[in-house]
Amino acid sequence: MKLNKQEREALEAMQRICTTYLESDQPVEISGKEATAIRQVLGIDLDQVCIKKGSILECVRGKDDVFIRRAHGVPKDIPKKLHFIFQVKQRKA
């Protein structure tokens, strides 16, 4: 299938996320551009479907090492740490 640049970028970023969650215990780095491509091409807004580290009281034991680190902000060195819902045991009220 022929894909344009943004479609390819979105699919490759999602593949990297999936591979990391299945095979690694390290965080996966996603750029703001990749997050935008995922949102526009696939309709998945990572900021909406994931929970920010600051909103979590407790993670499920053994599932807290892997998360999505997404750069945001002007300096680009302030990463958001995002966890999927299955990794969270308790959220802040």
What's the SSE blueprint?
Blueprint: H1 5-23, E1 28-30, H2 32-42, H3 46-49, E2 51-52, E3 56-59, E4 68-72, E5 78-83, E6 88-91
Parallel strand pairs: 1-4
Antiparallel strand pairs: 2-5, 3-6, 4-5
Helix pairs in contact: 1-2
Beta-strand percent range: 25-35%
Roughly how many Å is the radius of gyration? 14 Å
- Apparent shape: globular
The end-to-end span amounts to 45 Å
DSSP strand count: 6
Largest sheet strand order? 1-4-5-2
Rounded average pLDDT: 91
- Which structural class do you get from the secondary structure elements? alpha+beta
The helix-strand sequence is: HEHHEEEEE
Helical run tally: 3
Helicity, as a percent range: 25-40%
Largest sheet: 4 strands, mixed
Stretches where pLDDT falls below 50 for ≥5 residues? none
Number of domains: 1
Can you tag this structure with a few keywords?
93 residues; alpha+beta; four-stranded mixed sheet; 3 helices
Describe the model.
The protein is α+β, with helices and mostly antiparallel strands and 93 residues long. It has one domain (5-91). Helix content is 37%, strand content 26%. It is built from three helices and six strands; from the N terminus they run αβααβββββ. It has helices spanning 5-23, 32-42, 46-49, and strands at 28-30, 51-52, 56-59, 68-72, 78-83, 88-91. Strands 1-4-5-2 form a four-stranded mixed sheet. A hairpin with a 5-residue loop joins β4 and β5 (78-83). It is globular, with a radius of gyration of 14 Å.
